[in-house]
Structures are given as structure tokens and as C-alpha cells.
Amino acid sequence: VFPAQHFKRTDLATMGICGDSAEEAKQRVGYNLNNRKCTDVLFLLLFCGFWIGMFVVAGLAFKEGEPARLLRPVDYQGFLCGDDFGGRDLRSKPRIFFPLADANGNPTNVTADMKISRNFGICVSECPLVAEYNAIADYNGSLFFSYPSRSIISRCIPFDEDKFQIRFPSGTPLNGSLFTSDTRASFASVLNAANYVRESMEEVNRNAEWILFGGAMAALIGIGVLFLLRIFGGLLVWLSILFCLVSLLTITVWCFVKAGKLDGSKLQGQGIGTDLDLESSDEGQKTMYAFGVLFLVGFFVLLLLVLFMRSRIRLANKVLGFSARAVMDMPLILFFPFLMFILLIGFFVYWIYVALYLASSGEFETPSGQYPNEVEGGWKYDDNLLRLTVYHFLGLLWTRAFFHAMSEVTVAGAIGSFYYLRETPEMPERPVIKSLYHAVRFHGGSMAFGSFIITVITVVRATFEYMASKFRQARERNEAIRMCVCCVRCCLWCFERFMEFLNDQAYVQVAVHGHSFCKGARLAFKLLLSNILRVTAMTMIGNFVIFLMKVAIAALSTLIAFGAMVRDLNVAWDEAPLFPVLLMLIIGYAIASAFTDVYSTAIDTIFQCYIEDDGRATKSLQKLMHEADEIAGEGLRMQDSAPRH
């Protein structure tokens, strides 16, 4: 569709790209395999120094904190059950029991209207199993009623009160229920949550093999989708566009029929659901007419875009097909996101572990005064500990963004080497490993720089949301303030999305040509800006294809695994356990995201390499166009070389 001799642009190898000098343009031709140097070293040192601080924070947290304290209950005097923290040794009493109390919350005043009080708890060694008068003793020797209960997260939760009855020594039974409405709701929520977690875990344990089967099916379907995109990428894109046009037109006709603008009797039996019972009032017909006009406008806008950008859509089809071929030719690249996922999970576990120690490093203040006078107590944190917590949170944001940058640079480098060096002696035997080596050895500073920018933007957004929450009441009273907050929130979100997009494009320049981050971002921005229509077509089609891939992989893998599980359990589909199915869907979507992340980076890399070659009529460009046409024309007949690892 775009033979090299038809390109009209000036030779970029001599005139430069988008204002670059000729020397810069020459340096950017081809894949930089051996002429790399360390980039953005200052930010690499800053990132390493930041992580030294992270280890210092962890050391202080390990020295002062004890996460078990966070789960231990607090008695009515403010002491921790099961601990000697705060001046009272309760290590032999790790559980908390809530005795019966009168209407004023006093457990020592025996009345026939006593209820369980959540505000009065005493530490006990074991939860009582029987209803008995004067069975539970306070630290001061006071005796209280007991009732059958069981320990859930060190809290003594009563059994069903219908199974026992409390009587006073005189034989008078307790009036009414053990619970106040608030207490009943509190205990019921704990019991329901505990039962739901227990039942869900049991369902997962019984159906673990089908959950793993769903994950395996997601991986196989992902490979199959890439295989189809490699061969029929262009056809799938055109069919998807046709499906969207037909869907918009069908919905438009249906809306006009419901609005009374078309005769629905002529459409019976044509697949249009005109028999649906919708509101037939004037307001309902006006609403359906408005929707019909909206969908009709969308239909014509999409149709005009397709007609106007058909040549760029054909280019996008070629890039999609070639990107799928590049990914399939290097199978190891599909497993790289899972390696990064494992590393990221390991980091999250470490971060949460340290965060728990930080949260338990404060001072636990016991309330002054005697019950029932309530004086606030609990965990107190000084300013230094709060600063360490903020520092630790910044480490989470920066490191997460750094892992994303490493994944982008590694995949882009491998795809770039395939584009420029395939079927040449310079092609690395293991391009993914070679690209990972380049990323770690030369471009750690650039990855730290790009991830630092995203971290700063995220912190600015989080700070704004925190400030906005503080002025919630003012926003509710003043429409102007609410409008300003919405506008700023929208602008910050758009700016963050734009910077994430620009970062990903800059990582391609860093990985392929070995530039620093700022230079890579500048060149990528100029390159894409000078090809804005191609970028628009590529972005729209690429995002749509990636969305379809995620839906197809997650839905198909879940349906297949669900069908196999239902058949194995020999139950009706509506009687199958829900939680394992949701877990199948989540795992399928996660695996689909891993595949589509690689494919998305491959698309960005191939696209940038292509538009850089456009105008130079290089051998790389001619080979790309020839191979794309050859793959599209030959269908299933594959002529690729053996896969590289």
C-alpha cells in the first residue's frame, strides 16, 4: 500500500528529523547495538540514594515496631490484650470478652435489661463456653456474666443467642435479647465476613485445579490471538470497524422506532428488538429520539473517519501484523512481564511488611480516669514517624513506576533489534536478554528519571485530592468551588495520562537508539507530532484491538474453565460456586494484560521505527512493507525463521 518509492518526504538521513541536525539524524538511523553509554547517571544515583534511605526506614521500623500489636484488641482501660505494652502484663490474656452491662454501660450494676456493650471489654485467656453468673473476673476482682462465645481474630463473638438463656441467681431470666441493635449489627458483620472468607477459601481450595486450568487457557488463547493477528491482523481490524458501524446503525434504527420516527412493523423478523416494552410517553419518545440522533452522529463521524483515514488504517494494519510477528518470533518476550510481575509482587510484600512495622512503631497511650468515664487513648504517632511513613509511600510510587519503565525499555529494545537487525549477522541470539542487559547496564538513570516524573505527578494529584476532601463541605455549598475542583481534577488526570504516554514513547527512543531520557522524549514528541494523523489512527485502532484482546482472552478462558468445572461438579450453571469463577476472570484478565502490554509496546516501537524510516526509503522499511504484504497475502503459510529466545 505504501511502496518505498512513493514516499514524498525529504531524505531524513541528510536533512534531519523535525528540525534535528544531519549528524543527529545519522546517529538515529538503525538500532544502536554496541555504541551505548550510561544515560542520566545523576538520577540513577538519586534513585540508589533514595533506596538507601528506604533501608534505613526499614531498619528503624524493625527496631521499634511489632505488627502483631495492630491486631490485638484493646480493653476498656486502653491496654493491649496479649501484650505487656503500656505498663500492664496481659500476655496470658490474648482475647477480649464483652460482658453484659446495664443501659448506662455499667457491667457491675445487675439489672434484668443488661445487654452486651462493645465499649466495655476485658482481656481473658479463653472465651467462655457457657452462660454463667459471676464467671468472668475483672482485674480488680469484679465479677460479670458470661455467655457462650468463640474466638474470631482474638474477639469473643457470642453464639446464636437462641441456643442458650441467661438467668439471674434469683431465677429471673434476662429480659429481651443480649444485643442492642448496634451491637447485633457489629457482631453480625464480623461473623458474616468471617464466614464469607472461610467459605470462599474452601471453594477456592476445592476448585484450585480449575482455576489453574483457566489461567493456562488464558495463556494459550493469548498466544492464539497473537497468531491470528500475525496472519489476519488487517482483516480482523476491518471486521471490527464494520461491526462497530453496523452496531451503531442498528441501535440508531431501534431508537428511532421507539421514538415513533420509523415504522417498527416493517422491521419485525429483521433482528431488531422492537418488541421491547419501553416507556411510550412523550418524554420517553423524546429521550429515545435524542439517543437516536446521538448514535446517528456517531455513525457518520466513524464512517467519515474511516473514509478519510483509510490509507492510515491500512498502515496501522500492517504495523499490527508485523508487531504480532515480532512478538511471536521471540517467545521469551511473552514471559518477561511475568518475571517483572513476580519482582513487583516481591517488592509489594516487602513494602507492606515494612509498613506494618512502621504502623506499630508509635506510642500506645492508655486513657486516664476510671470507667465509665471515657478518655481517648490508642496509637499516637510523632512527626518523625509520619515523615518516615510518607517517605516509605514515595518509595512505593517511585519503585512501581521504575519497574514499569524497565519492562517498557526491555521490550522496546528487543522489538527494535528485531525491526532493524532481523536476518542479519548483527541480530543478537537472545534479543530479550540483550535488551535487558542494555536497560540495566546503560539506562537505569533514564528509567529512574522517567519514573520520577510520574511519581511527582502522582503525588501532586494525591495532594490535590487530599486538599479537596478537606473542603468537601465548602464544595457542597458553593457551585463555583465544585466546578473549579472538577476542572482541576480533570486537567491533572489528562496531564498524567499524557505524561505516561510521552514517557512510554521516550522509553522507545532510549531502548532503540540509546538516548538520554530528555533527548528521547524530545525526539519522540517531535516525531509523533509531525505524523499526528498517523498517530491518531494508530492509537485508535491499537487501543481498540488491545481492548478486544483483553475481553476475548479473559472471557473465553473463564467460559472454558467454568464449563469444565460445572461438568466436573455435575451441577447446574447457576448453582456453581461464584468466587472461583470471579478468580478465574481476574487471573484471565491479568494474563491478558501481560500479553497486551507486550503487544502495545511492540506496536509503539514498530510504529516509531517505521515513521523514522519513512522518507529515507531504507532497506528496513522496504523489508517491513514487503513482509507485511507477504504475510497478508499468503494467509496461513508461514515463512518465518526459527524462533529466537
Description of the molecule:
This protein has 645 residues and is mainly alpha-helical. 64% of the residues lie in helices and 5% in strands. It is built from 18 helices and ten strands. The strands form five sheets. It has a two-stranded antiparallel ribbon with strand order 1-4. Strands 2-3 form a two-stranded antiparallel ribbon. Strands 5-6 form a two-stranded antiparallel sheet. A hairpin with a 2-residue loop joins strand 7 and strand 8 (155-158). Helix 3 (41-64) crosses helix 12, helix 6 (208-258) packs antiparallel against helix 8 (310-329) and helix 8 packs across helix 18 (619-634). It is globular, with a radius of gyration of 33 Å. The two termini are 32 Å apart. Mean pLDDT is 75; it is low at 1-28, 167-173, 271-279, 369-376 and 631-645.
Name the helix and strand elements from N-terminus to C-terminus, one letter apiece. Answer: HHHHEEEEEEEEHHHHHEEHHHHHHHHH
Q: How are strands sequenced across the largest beta sheet? A: 1-4
Please state the average pLDDT score.
Answer: 75
Low-confidence stretches: 1-28, 167-173, 271-279, 369-376, 631-645
Give structural attributes:
645 residues; mainly alpha; two-stranded antiparallel ribbon; 18 helices; disordered C terminus
